[in-house]
Amino acid sequence: MSHVMGTVMAVPTAQKDAYIAMSHRLWPLFQAAGAVDWRECWGDMVPDGELTSFPKAVQKAEDETVVMAWIEFRDKASAEACMEAMDSAPEWQTAFADGIPFDGKRMIWGLFDVVARP
User: Fold this and answer.
1) I need a labelling partner for 7 at 20 to 30 A (CA). Which of 39, 50, 68, 113 fits?
2) CA-derived radius of gyration, the chain
3) 12: helix, coil or strand?
4) Average pLDDT over the chain, rounded to an integer
5) pLDDT in tens, 27-57
6) What is the pTM of this model?
7) Sites in the chain below the pLDDT cut of 50
8) Residue 17 parent element (H or E)
9) Of 15, 17, 35, nearest to 27 (Cα)?
10) Distances from the Cα of 1 to the Cαs of 20, 65, 78, 79, in angstroms?
11) CA–CA separation, 80 vs 43, rounded Å?
12) 83 sits in which H/E element
């Protein structure tokens, strides 16, 4: 059964092109790890909530945009192996050598079992 790694983060609006470039640079590594699909979604209408919201969850600053992304893996084992490789494999370390264009400490992520689809 496929699994999706989902993320939500606040990216400096001025870093949109750098974020997109990073995503394209990383996709082949995710694909080699068993990813079958991927989406990067730049916030267009992401309102502040009174109690909870995406902006509150990632502590979005005024000059940032909420970004939601997901990567679909063919199975849970592929997703878990990918996450392990991200911490240690040389190709991942090289891909992140220039850093990331957002504050990774405010990124929310999780692995989800796909239970329904069209």
Assistant:
1) 50
2) 15
3) strand
4) 95
5) 999 999 999 999 999 999 999 999 999 999 9
6) 0.92
7) none
8) helix 16-32
9) 35
10) 29, 32, 11, 11
11) 27
12) helix 76-88
